[in-house]
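Example (one chain per record):
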Amino acid sequence: MEKILDIVGAIASENGLPQEQVVEAIKESMVKMAKKEISENGNFIVFEDKSSKELKLVQKMIVCDDGEFNEDMEATHIPISDAQKLVEHVNAGDELEYQINLEGMNRNAVNSIFHDITYQIQKLNEQEILKAFEKDLNKIVIGKVLYVDKDGNTSVELGETRAILPLKNRIKGENFRVGQTIRCVLKSARITRNGIRLELSRTTPKLLEELLMLEVPEIKDGEVSIYKIARIPGEKAKVALYTNNPKIDPIGSAVGARGVRINAVSKELHGENIDCIEYSSVPEIFVAKSLLPAQVISVKLQTSEDDEKPLAIVQVSKSQKSKAIGKSGINIRLASMLTGYIFQLEEVADKEENIVIKKDDNKDEDKKLGLEALQSLFKGK
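Predicted structure:
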């Protein structure tokens, strides 16, 4: 076994593993071999003799009275009469240790140790790699496209490890070319029978959140916070933002001058349209804002007694209804995802709306109408 110990340092260095872990892997392989070749129920232990740089495989046996011994105890016990032939002074209940000479074992037994060591080192390698990637879970990782298979799944190189971007996690309509550098969120990292599996995603709301943190310093610094994100990948997203700093405009910070910040994020997401709205702790106001760009007349909330989502009855004018719903219902779906409410739209004639929102050049009248609009928002609360 000196040969194994001589290469322990090299194995550890080559694989970037602590030497102690490699030694433990070898010990485990030796015990596994002994149980297979000698006895499944045997009590085997491996000792490390640092002075001689050897690993010693030992079988522990308990001494018992001759009358107590039976065949079922052969793997773990030895009759006292047999023990006295090996040790001069021994009593029932004593524990004896027998060193097993591996050189005297058959070649297959020794080879099995080396094969198992290789397997154990591979497992240790995978565990170390997994630990490194677990730190990046739900964060952006940058990789290079290796190939796209016939099912549309994209293989991505992350350092020396390959990850997979499944078709279901790819934004609809986007295509990648070999060698292209892409940004994804590391969705999961686990060890499977076939090795490490890293799954990436470009459809998770977390990607939008991470991209906003990269583009918006106020979000990265914590001055502006993201309350929630609702997203239909590649189509549209709504981001609810808030700040405790009265000097900061959370929407303006996220959008940037002339939309430069939000446009950069949209470009990364294959042109996804992104609405930024200001979160409000008042549910009615938050519901109303969630339907932007549609203008809402009033909001009435109804709680649900069962596990279903609560209901938001929202009044909008005829001219604003299509905006509230959005193309293919996207706007109202995102608003529901963002607020947690089921929306019921009630159409109000435009003439009735004009009473609330009509403005003229008279500032006092504008102020009065603004108060009426605020009151109507909570009508029926």
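Caption: The radius of gyration is 35 Å.
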